[in-house]
Amino acid sequence: MTAYADFYRQSIDQPDIFWREQAGLIEWKTPPQQVCDYSNPPFAKWFVGGTTNLCHNAVDRHLATRAGQSALVAISTETDTERSYSFAELHAEVQRMAAVLQGLGVKKGDRVLIYMPMIAEAAFAMLACVRIGALHSVVFGGFASGSLASRIEDAEPVAVVSADAGSRGGKVVPYKPLLDEAIALSKHKPAAVLMINRGLAPMHLQPRRDHDWAALREQHLNTVVPCEWVESTHPSYTLYTSGTTGKPKGVQRDTGGYTVALAASMKHIFDAKAGDVYFATSDIGWVVGHSYIVYGPLIAGMTTIMYEGLPTRPDAGVWWSIVEKYQVTHMFSAPTAVRVLKKQDPAYLAKYNVKSLKALWLAGEPLDEPTAQWISDALSVPIIDNYWQTETGWPILTLANGVQQQTTRFGSPGKAMYGYHVKLIDESNGEELTAPNQKGVVAIEGPLPPGCMQTVWRDDARFVNTYWKSIPGRLIYSTFDWGIRDADGYHFILGRTDDVINVAGHRLGTREIEESIASHPNIAEVAVVGVADSLKGQVAMAFAVARDASGLTHEAARLKLEGEVMKQVDSQLGAVARPSRVYFVSVLPKTRSGKLLRRALQAVAERRDPGDLTTMEDPAALQQVKDLVG
Ligand code: PRX
């Protein structure tokens, strides 16, 4: 057996011994008494009896040894600003934010919704919440008022932290009007709103409810806010993600398990050491931002870089200039970003010295071979694909280079990570596929390892029914991805089994987009499918039946309605969810029993063979689609 194979086997066969050792990577106020309580499957309780604090492990812990080292560097090419915070400065800022939140009434167990651009204050707010035992719920700044409202309603936050505006490609995107609209739409009204004024967009502060961060911060320059020691199982945060149904799920994470899982991943997967420099190009609104912009690198005592801006502005060399300037050792991005850079002049990359980089990790969507090959040649460092989900918080499949250097196989995110008992399951009968190269559902035998979701926020039944009961006859966690595994244990991911699509690494539910489109007064019915795209991986494409189609024979009328529908999605969900095209048809392809033939629709939209159509009600329906997409 190889070193990694042994390591993996121990994690599965002797999880108590394995995870007790990993628990030693973090600091506990009270050490755990039991490694895992799985007496009530599928609910796993990790490190029972232990008390700790996520902020302590990310910040305070390092003060003794590296107070002066840079902890967080916030770079914005949108506002042309760059600011570095040492661990001591970060500690001070987080306490100020924690004191302000406490002043606004936030207590242990309360939720705080964070709707922010990529600025340092967003990280202060996250760390401040977990410092006082409050749960943050970060909502991606690209989401619009409808998405924000449904999350406010579900999380019921006591306070919201936001900013006047974000900025994208030099264009200011005001946040405050979207936030005001979302609060108006939501049944739950947060008692307090804390606004960071960047001076980008004018803001109206609502008396009593809205507060200015700079003014309140002044009152707490030297306030000491100790870390609240919480049970290992105390929730640290919720993060919403899309699934099959329209309503996003609040993925709830614990404290002790998550802290241990991240510390372990920094060591075994990223082979990172204190003092190294981590640059993840994601956004704090996504899980990668939580685990690998904010918490993971800080827990490991690294410097983390937070970047606001495009990869191509002021030019396509901007990321590499950051790598050179800050001597970045670990970089994390998404395949779409690499595909964007691949279209630019390679001279931009050659301009900079990127020798400090040990590897580039890519995740969030399938990494195609040509993209992997191009960036591998350009950087001359290992390109490491890694596959995981919002639900798991850290990689399920990748290469654990900190345990044993292994060769990348382009097209594969690699092997099952320690702690994950990954199986491929035959969907029809629930049986495990053990022979190599067979296609099945990627599933994980419980308990899920530390760091993974505890439950769906306030909905245990949804957690069990959605994730653990989708495969007939057995209680096993489904990732809702198809996969195969070769004889050497390398896996390949072959797309989702459900209606989730992946646009430029952003996970979106087609049902959510359909609901938004269907609320347009002239839309009777709509189907949204993900269609392969050479740049973004997938794009959303909508096929709609208009209530009044009389004018739609004219192109101008069609374009007008298409534009209205797109605007509607922009304003309700955000531009990330906007379909690339809205085609109008007279009927949608359905079975005789009225079930929408999504797979067939998607196949035709991708110009593939739709397969068996014997159950289809009206064959002309697909012909229309064929004619439209050309
Ligand atoms: O379908 C898989 C795809 O993205 C989904 C999870 O998205 P999200 O919750 O946003 O978490 C992203 C964490 C990196 C998965 O169910 N996916 C993620 N990584 C990969 C991937 N598909 C193929 N290859 C990957 N490396």
How much strand content do the residues show? 25-35%
**What proportion of the residues is helical, as a percent range?**
25-40%
Low-confidence region ranges? none
* Count of alpha/pi helices: 20
Bound ligands: adenosine-5'-monophosphate-propyl ester
- Summarize the biggest pleated sheet: 8 strands, mixed
Radius of gyration: 24 Å
Description:
31% of the residues lie in helices and 26% in strands. It starts with a helix and ends with a helix. It is built from 20 helices and 32 strands. Strands 12-11-8-6-7-14-15-25 form an eight-stranded mixed sheet, sandwiched between helices. Strands 5-4-17-16-18-19-20 form a seven-stranded mixed sheet, sandwiched between helices. By secondary structure, the chain is an alpha/beta fold. The site of adenosine-5'-monophosphate-propyl ester (PRX) has 22 residues, from helix 11, strand 20, strand 26 and strand 27.
